[in-house]
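Holo model, nicotinamide-adenine-dinucleotide. Inputs:
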Amino acid sequence: MSEIFEPKNIIVTGGCGFIGSNFVRWVAREHPEVHVTVLDKLTYAGNPENIAGLDSACVELVVGDICDAGLLDELVPGHDAVVHYAAESHNDNSIADPAPFLRTNVEGTFALIEACRKHGVRFHHVSTDEVYGDLALDDPARFTEETPYRPSSPYSSTKAASDMLVRAWVRTYGLRATISNCSNNYGPYQHPEKFIPRQVTNILDGVRPRLYGDGRNVRDWIHTEDHSSAVWTILTRGRVGETYLIGADGERSNIDVLRAILRAMGRPEDDFDWVRDRPGHDRRYAIDPTKLRRELGWEPAHTDFAAGLERTIAWYRDHEPWWRAAKDAAEARYAAQGQ
Ligand code: NAD
Ligand code: TDX
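Output:
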């Protein structure tokens, strides 16, 4: 194992989004000695409420664009590390309009690694298992760090491109960087355009959930708290230049997840509508997290999916003012796409 890196002063890009804000709250709770500067553009997916109430001596918000090289030149020096979550993150949006994905995911990552190279700052790149494409339902294989890149969607191809940039900057310029590729996250503060919160908020609204295609597509679910602890582990104890896959053995078909939501919310299991499939819809994702577990000793803590789902449902039930406007806008986008 390499030396332990003890950052005191980090930038978290995208810290007002779903996973970034959960990470910021996790750091504020577990490592209150660390100062966090959140850099977030506050797109439709960013909400400053997600980090409201945290000690302002520990967490500061800078509203800005990761593509803004001038801003990065001012902000990055003096920090120990940049943890990069900011992205356009939704596959369906990337199919409707890929341009913002190219800009933020590719050009934004480029601007950040240039700033980190120039100012000698450690970089952690948060990415996705979707860069590996998909697996067949009957394939016993899972993704490993050696699986070839084979992205399917505009979203995943821009994330793959950003991973490649980081790898090239490590090799060519000696950038001190690590990469993590995580499976599907769930938990509080997830935008209501995504599968689990969309179905939960539909049911709360008295609307039938919507299942794409045949519903047999498999996603490998991990609680966002476990993603946060894994990223912290890799940032502080991971080997520079390495990639680590993050997963918690949570493979489930979409129809099984939807039925679990319906049951937990007291609805009949068949109370949903089938809708048009997502073009290019990946069939199955599955992560083999052996490297992270063996090399860094990381273990997930939230492995009871039914319990995590119940807590997540309760969170959405209790936070309608948080999701209402975002949901209405997301449903207008879905209606335009026939989904
Ligand atoms: P999200 O869409 O909820 O949040 C994205 C955040 O980035 C928002 O706060 C948004 O305002 C900000 N942002 C977007 N463009 C920006 C820009 N140009 N400059 C500054 N800020 C900008 O996304 P998420 O689901 O929290 O995903 C976070 C990261 O984790 C992404 O990099 C995503 O690829 C990765 N990831 C997500 C999942 C998942 O299940 N959601 C799984 C694996 C990896
Ligand atoms: O209404 C829906 N009905 C449905 O059947 C929605 C919104 C989705 N789905 C299906 C599509 C997927 O098979 O549910 C599954 C999950 O969909 P999303 O929540 O859109 O997630 P996914 O496309 O798997 O990507 C997510 O995980 C990997 C994140 O959005 C990405 O940012 C991350 O990289």
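Residues 89-91, 128, 130, 184, 194-195, 198, 210-212, 217, 219, 254, 278 surround thymidine-5'-diphospho-beta-D-xylose (ligand 2) (CB under 6 Å). The radius of gyration is 19 Å.
Archived with the compound record.
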